[in-house]
Amino acid sequence: MYQLILRNFAMHIKLDAAEAELITAKLQHKTVKKKTVLLSAGTICRNIYFVNKGCLRIFNTDNEGQEHNILFNPPNWWAVDIASFSGQTPAFYNIGALEDTDVFYLSYSILEELYTQVPKLERFFRIMTQNGFYLYQQRITSNLSKTAEERYELFQKQYPRLEQRIAQKHIASYLGITPVFLSMIRKRNS
């Protein structure tokens, strides 16, 4: 049950058996149905989620009701509104399920406890935050300097096989284009 998340931790830290047991004992688990919202903008992000199966998305809804997908979270990815979670302030982003999704999660207070009990976890989440910041910087640069076709190619590399699992409108939103334009790009590339 915990194999994927323990392998995820092992990417950056080495946990001994006692530490792994302590962490897994504190992990909470749930399965959410497609279209379930785990976090709504304006509420406080109280949990950090690890996707074990399925897919989440982090998105914002503008004043006209348009949704803008910022990040997809397939298996082995984490999902959080980091500013809200870290500061325990109202969230700017929403987190929702694109498929029936199985997640492990830690609350803010439990994670703070674990930082004291398993200091290596602070290193893990620091590295994860740095990697996430790098990803956002790359995404901003890509949105400003690359064509829609180039952004689509990057999406395919970053999220292999996800394209077959989620709606075209979500991919188009992530790329900053219309679904019709995405169809045109796909036709040109096939």
TrEMBL record:
Source domain of life: Bacteria
Molecular function (Gene Ontology), one example: kinase activity
UniProt keyword terms in alphabetical order: Kinase, Transferase
Coiled-coil stretches noted in the UniProt entry, renumbered to this chain: none
Record domain Cyclic nucleotide-binding: where: 30-116
InterPro entries the UniProt entry points to: cNMP-bd_dom, cNMP-bd_dom_sf, RmlC-like_jellyroll
Protein name: cAMP-binding domain of CRP or a regulatory subunit of cAMP-dependent protein kinases
Organism: Mucilaginibacter pineti
